[in-house]
Specification:
262 residues, alpha/beta, Rossmann fold, six-stranded mixed sheet, four-stranded antiparallel sheet, 10 strands
Amino acid sequence: MTSKQNPIIKATNLVKRYGRVTALDHCNFELYHDEILAIIGDNGAGKSTLIKAISGAVIPDSGEIELDGKPIRFTSPLDARQHGIEPVYQQLAMSPALSIADNVFMGRELRKPGFLGKVLRMLDRPAMEAFAREKLNELGLTTIQNIRQPVETLSGGQRQGVAVARAAAFGSKVIILDEPTAALGVKESRRVLELIAEVKSRGIPIVLISHNMPHVFEVADRIHVHRLGRRLCVIDPKQHSMSDAVALMTGAKEPEPARETA
């Protein structure tokens, strides 16, 4: 990990209030180019608000976000996606009745060339299916045989795999994974963790939000501990235990200044 390089995303003093509730309280955040950064925190700590601010779903009241060293202000999730930031939320945001290929291209459909596409708006299904098949194969999702089958026929792990493949296909800068192994069995969770490692090996940094400490400590390069609307500290999973992480995020333990990561 090259944590001393310039971060791909940096957030400084983010504030977001909902009436009297402060969801983000001068929160800082950095994600570097070659890492998996896990975000952990108790329920209500503000993790979701932070991720939504980074992915354009929430506009902070104040503070600054930089992408590749340049200040940026996302106005919507579509705006963030156009800048290469792809979130995969726990709900997956898929249409179960549509095919795998249709879900991969949702909102980005390819039109046939010429008159058929420009005027009649006909979809180029063969091109979409070939692209979707290629992206699934790249991540080793070979158990999905028929790219035309409805997503509702897939297992939970396979659906998560399709969502990750979609993010990896279009997320040129950053992929954000929100509880990707929640509600999955042991075998399917293992496959998702392998997918995460595969995506990282392709050079795409990942933000991982998870309550599953064994998974966090297995794949994360750094762990951002979020508490009371702000970053409490960043720890190295090789130098801290799972019990340390839980104690920090619940307030049972305070961070040691020498171990904090700026």
